[in-house]
Amino acid sequence: MVIEQHQETTARGTSNDLIPVFDGHNDTLLSLGRTGRSFFEHGEAGHLDLPRARAGGLAGGFFAVFIPDPPSLAEPAASQEEDPASIADRYRDPQAFPPPMPLAYAQREALRTIAALYRLEAASVGAARVVRTAAEIRRCLVEGVLAMELHIEGAEAIDPELDALDVFYAAGLRSLGIVWSRPNRFAHGVPFAFPSSPDTGPGLTDLGKELVRACNQRRIMLDLSHLNEAGFWDVAALSDAPLVATHANAHALVPSSRNLTDRQLAAIRDSGGLVGVNFHVGFLRPDGAGDAETPLIRIAEQVEYLLEKLGPTGVALGSDFDGATMPAALGDVAGLPRLLDALRAHGFDDATLRAVAYDNWLGVLERTWGA
Ligand SMILES: [Zn+2]
Question: Which end of the chain has the smaller Cβ count within 10 Å, N or C?
Fold first, then answer.
């Protein structure tokens, strides 16, 4: 349906506004769980629901399973949006092993969220589908079905024996972020800081290295977003898969700890990997401020710079919908056509727009998962 709509608009010679978008990261499952809002009704809260996804041409994306801080650690109103730095502070000590998150708690939360994803799929009556292969994503694009890829952001729910990895894989897991912005038993996440190098602490633990090998064997994509630089280089040395950061930007333009240095970008390029451009204003603005009054040209500049460093197949989108502060000009997922217009106005041709909007994701997933 998405493609038919696009053909209609092209035939009228109007705009590119329904180029489909496959997106590298959203926290919508977390948002739905926290707010109780419906995925199937057009809402104002959050950034993504099915009606708004259709309005914006969202064809699918990575739906993250994120384990919030255990209640005993969280301040009464703590959330990622409100004060990420204070949350990260509690985890910053690299000596804090075992990490302050009980495995049973993390697994319970992961099960709850994965179950929520499958309940969404069932309740969608065919409008949304959990996908495990690039071919399934392509089919969803043709059929106008929202493709939902099961991603885990932060491996706290995976036990040292990696039993949960196999169970999650069987449940559809095809990509894993080793860490969020806190340490766990596998690696050290980069605390949110500006300006800051991403080189904030030690590399992977021995167990982290085992996890990388295990993911390679199962062809689970490893997401390097939120990983500190030492951990990044450990993965680069070990992994036989393309290096991918699903939602991060270029450090040369915006010196946030969450963005990637030119050296990291070169390693990603050499591996046949990819970066999904993050729309969070704090990772887009040269001053690092969390100000929603951030023009869409900041996203265009990131796309341009990353294309220069990564080549034409190395750049895609990784919005961070429902997990970050979006530019006001974008608003939510329904604003994607405005972003594509801004990219076109910046000088990208139709082929480049389509590559960045969906095709580069499909390419790197095929290289990682197999065609
Ligand atoms: Zn994230």
Answer: C
CA of 7 to the centre of ligand 1 (A): 34
Residue 32 has pLDDT above 70, yes or no: yes
| Three-class secondary structure of residue 346 per DSSP | coil
Sequence letter at residue 157: A
**Chain CA centroid to CA 201, Å:** 22
Answer yes or no: are the C-beta atoms of 361 and 318 closer than 8 Å.
no
| Mean pLDDT, residues 285-306 | 98
In angstroms, what is the span from residue 64 Cα to ligand 1's centroid? 9
Yes or no: say if 153 and 66 are a contact pair by the CB < 8 Å rule.
yes
Indicate the pairing of strand 221-223 with strand 58-66: unpaired
pLDDT in tens, 330-347: 999 999 999 999 999 999
CA distance 121 to 280: 27
**From the CA of 124, how far away is ligand 1's center (Å)?**
26
